[in-house]
Design goal:
Radius of gyration of chain A: 19 Å
Number of strands of chain B: 30
Order of helices and strands of chain A: HHHHHHHHHH
CATH topology of the largest domain in chain B: 60s Ribosomal Protein L30, Chain: A
Number of helices of chain B: 18
CATH class of the largest domain in chain B: Alpha Beta
Oligomer: heterodimer
Number of domains of chain A: 2
Structural class of chain A: mainly alpha
Number of domains of chain B: 3
Largest sheet of chain B: 8 strands, antiparallel
Helix content of chain B: 10-25%
Shape of chain A: elongated
Helix content of chain A: 55-70%
Distance between the termini of chain B: 31 Å
Largest interface: A-B, 34 and 36 residues
Number of helices of chain A: 10
Strand content of chain A: under 5%
Distance between the termini of chain A: 65 Å
Chain lengths: ~180, ~725
């Protein structure tokens, strides 16, 4: 019982650190190294079960630092749920998290995110998709349509820049 | 004002003149044919290149003791020496000449003029022993000790040596060496270094009828231009042999050596000294110097022009070092002003509120540690006077000259003729500039209460780290008086410079940056502007630089600033840059190593995202000095107001992570109206919008961890000499 309480307390501490707005590198480093697997898994479980208020983007970003073999599936679930978070930073972190977890459906998730209203989310989606687009004319066409629709719009500066850098402004991928 | 052929007058007030002499063209040596036994003697001309004249007003009456006003002129000496260095970097050697008026005995005036030159020489080289001699000879009978104590803020009871040292340091902080003088200090009595000319070289010789009939005081006033000390700077590299120097030493009671140098016929020195039927002025007749040697040295000097008349009123910027929050006769005259820190400006809370009361201690301006005031002394005015004040750019054109520049100064006591303003404040951003403020005036004044930008009695002006503040007062029936002070101390120079290397990661090789770098983008209009405003308040000028060898195509310039677009090294995702606490790939370390810093330079890396979820990360030396990214900041785009300036603040304040994670926490026990955390740049988490109440302030007092932000920042290795 005592051990269980200690684990909960540890999880609370770890959660509080990871949920900070800006966490000093020293503090983050120390937290990740000093907390055990139980606390890490409990934090992931708590985030996965949190619906309202939605987890902040920074917390979702930091989940990857406490990834264990025992919490990976639950972490993926948290990311998938938060692809529809009202918080743009949470959506962006979730898409990036799924990519880092190597989720099998990452291309589908990215395609769903191309229509996002946040440039940061669209930018991550485009970055995931541009490599795929060079082999898949359908994806290329979709990205090009997205670019054409938003070309010149300053609020999509980052995602447009990614598409421009990868030549997605052209009708078809370069054959070079 | 003379043009270049007459020299350049840098300043001329009733206290004296600072000038550069006209440039003399170098002539080839012309030699006459000689016999075997005759020779030509060639010597370089004894050429003064600059001068500072110290008028009678900077000495106690009939005394050699220099008053605090002498600092107003001597502060120009280091700059004048610098201006007249030669190509080898040698400074122009100085020699000091003292003059008395043609009243009294020659020997008495020789001694007085000599003492004045000894006093100035002693001041310039901080020679306490020489001043102690003067004290024993003359000053002990004058009121000099209270003057020195008052000027230096030294309490009674200390040693005279310490008091003299403090006074000298106050009046002329950058002391010279004896080797900086013409005689190089070789002669213990100062031969060629300083000398008294008695009354032999007056600028004005009153007519005999004036001498016979004028009342003593009037005659004394008319003779005022003759009582002066002139510091001449000679051509850099000039060497003289003191043994051959024609002037007797300042302590020599005899005038014989002087008389030996008088002009001979047709118009002898004695004839030149003699009063005639009409007043003669050297400026017009050039025949009032009896000494032909001095005539050769000083005849062309812009400093040997008549002094401007003593104004009937004075206008000064003054300080309040003892915390009286008021102006009186004794407030020391300011030689520079600084920008407000807003350190006692708010009542801390959620949200904090701005203190804007009629009383000075409850006014954000009146309570600010950088407050200053205007003072007018005008015995002909009463009750109140109006002064115009404005700020100037570095080129002395107007910076902030609002529609109504007037400030009301209230007489400090009935009949005193001394008028003081309420505290004034300089700011450097648009929000602060437009902040309304209580004028601090009593209800009987029409401008009592809230005053806004562009209205009279608005106590705020926007200033620039390289600019000036200027005030103007017009006494009734007299010409306007202007006073102009530098913003931040410049002699010695206290301003600092800070250089930034700004890198913007590209989204992909050869692509755009992760943030917009076009001229109208937030990088320039928000981030760099905010950085300049925040650190400009401390007297720091921020510039940007690019490492030598950077490929031109990667450099983006805007005005005088440049940033560099960089491709992410292989394996680094520009949208997800990591310092990686798990110890694997370390993107920030790699970026730090790949794009090293120039000396004493802060690096800012704009990235598309940080894997840590942070808005920004910085690497101050105290915790990370050994890492290649030390002294750098990584910012997730343009994420929040003041974000870049905040992260730079971590590098500059160099506060350890163990102390409130390097952030500002108000000191324990601080009253609720000072040093508020919410308004501090280094609070944990910056504001989301700009504004007067937002997190942009830095304080000059210890925080909860003992860190004094202003001191730490100005002393940081990431700042350098201005």
């Amino acid at each position: 019982m005592a051990d269980s309480n200690a684990a909960v307390n540890n999880a609370d501490q770890l959660y509080a650190i990871l949920n900070g707005e800006n966490v000093h590198p020293v503090v983050l480093d120390s937290a990740i190294n000093s907390f055990g697997e139980i606390a890490k898994n409990q934090v992931v479980a708590r985030v996965a079960a949190t619906f309202e208020p939605p987890p902040r983007g920074a917390l979702l970003d930091r989940l990857l630092f406490i990834r264990t073999s025992g919490n990976q599936a639950e972490m993926a679930g948290a990311f998938i749920v938060n692809l529809r978070s009202p918080l743009p930073e949470a959506r962006k972190a979730s898409l990036q998290g799924l990519e880092k977890l190597g989720h099998a459906a990452i291309v589908q998730f990215a395609l769903l995110s191309v229509r996002d209203e946040s440039d940061a989310v669209v930018a991550v989606a485009c970055q995931i998709l541009v490599a795929r687009a060079k082999q898949d004319p359908v994806v290329w066409k979709l990205l090009r349509s997205a670019y054409t629709a938003r070309a010149g719009r300053q609020e999509f500066y980052l995602s447009n820049s990614i598409l421009e850098a990868h030549g997605v402004t052209a009708l078809t991928p370069s054959t070079k | 004002m003379p043009d270049q052929k007459d020299g350049i007058i840098h300043s001329a007030t009733e206290h004296g003149t600072v000038a550069s002499h006209p440039v003399r063209t170098a002539e080839p040596f012309r030699v006459a044919p000689t016999t075997e036994t005759d020779v030509n003697t060639l010597s370089l001309d004894l050429v003064p290149v600059a001068c500072i004249s110290l008028h009678d007003t900077v000495f106690e009456f009939d005394s050699s003791f220099p008053t605090p006003d002498v600092a107003l002129l001597l502060k120009e000496l280091p700059g004048l020496r610098e201006k007249h260095k030669n190509a080898k970097g040698q400074f122009p050697p100085a020699s000091i000449f003292g003059h008395a008026d043609p009243v009294g005995k020659d020997a008495y005036n020789k001694a007085l003029s000599g003492r004045r030159t000894r006093a100035i020489y002693g001041l310039l080289v901080h020679d306490i022993a020489l001043w102690q001699q003067l004290f024993n000879e003359e000053w002990h009978s004058k009121n000099v000790l209270p003057t020195m104590r008052k000027a230096t803020g030294t309490p009674d009871g200390g040693s005279r040596n310490d008091l003299m040292k403090a006074y000298m340091t106050q009046l002329f902080p950058v002391k010279l060496d004896k080797g900086d003088f013409l005689g190089k200090g070789v002669d213990a009595k100062g031969k060629a270094d300083f000398q008294g000319c008695s009354e032999f070289n007056p600028l004005i010789i009153l007519s005999q009828p004036e001498n016979d009939t004028l009342p003593h005081e009037e005659r004394n006033a008319k003779n005022r231009p003759n009582r002066r000390v002139v510091v001449f700077l000679f051509r850099a590299g000039l060497n003289v042999n003191p043994k051959l120097w024609p002037c007797p030493v300042a302590t020599d009671p005899s005038t014989a050596e002087c008389v030996a140098r008088f002009f001979g016929p047709p118009k002898t020195g004695e004839q030149r000294r003699k009063a005639g039927a009409e007043l003669r002025a050297f400026e017009k007749t050039a025949d009032t110097f009896a000494c032909r040697f001095y005539d050769r040295v000083a005849g062309q000097s812009p400093c040997e022009k008549p002094a401007p008349p003593v104004p009937t009123a004075t206008l000064e910027f003054v300080n309040d070092p003892t915390g009286t929050h008021a102006v009186a006769a004794g407030n020391p005259v300011a030689t520079f002003v600084r920008m407000g820190l807003w350190d006692h400006a708010f009542t801390c809370g959620t949200p904090s509120t701005l203190n804007d009361d009629v009383t000075e201690l409850k006014s954000f301006i009146g309570a600010d540690s950088r407050r200053f005031y205007l003072r007018v002394k005008d015995t002909k005015a009463k009750d109140s006077v109006q002064v115009k004040w404005r700020t100037l750019k570095s080129d002395s054109t107007n910076l902030d000259a609002p529609a109504d520049e007037h400030m009301t100064l209230i007489e400090t006591g009935a009949g005193t003729g001394i008028f003081g303003s309420r505290a004034l404040m300089l700011v450097n951003d648009a929000d602060d500039q437009k902040q309304g403020a209580n004028s601090g005036l009593p209800a009987t004044f029409p401008t009592a209460g809230a005053r806004n930008f562009d209205q009279s009695d608005h106590r705020i002006r926007r200033a620039d780290v390289e600019g000036f503040v200027e005030a103007e007062y017009t006494p009734v029936g007299a010409a306007p008086i202007k006073v102009k002070l530098p913003v931040f101390q410049r002699n010695p120079e206290k301003r600092r410079k800070m250089s930034l290397q700004i890198f913007v990661l590209r989204v992909a090789a050869g692509g755009n940056g992760v943030i917009d770098t076009s001229p109208a983008s937030g990088l320039w209009t928000s981030e760099l502007r905010e950085i300049r405003e925040i650190y400009g308040r401390l007297g720091i000028k921020v510039d940007t630089l690019v490492a030598p060898g950077t490929i031109a195509a990667n450099i983006v310039t805007n005005g005088g600033d440049s940033i560099v677009l960089i491709d992410a090294p292989a394996g680094i995702n520009p949208l997800n840059v990591s310092f990686n606490p798990l110890g694997g790939a370390n993107d920030e370390r790699r970026l730090g190593a790949t794009f090293p810093a120039q000396a004493n330079t802060i690096r800012i890396f704009y990235v598309g995202g940080l894997a840590s979820g942070n808005r920004a990360e910085s690497w101050p030396d105290i915790d990370f000095g050994a890492l290649p990214q030390h002294g750098s900041c990584f910012l997730r785009g343009i994420a929040a107001t003041y974000n870049a300036a905040h992260e730079m603040g971590h590098v500059l304040t160099d506060k350890a992570a163990g102390k409130n994670t390097g952030h500002y926490v108000a000191p324990a026990g601080a009253p609720g109206t000072r040093l508020c955390a919410d308004q501090n740049l280094m609070r944990n988490g910056t504001s989301v919008v700009e504004g007067v109440l937002e997190s942009k302030r830095l304080y000059d007092e210890a925080d909860a961890d003992g860190t004094v932000q202003v001191t730490k920042i100005l002393g940081s290795s990431f700042t350098r000499d201005f």
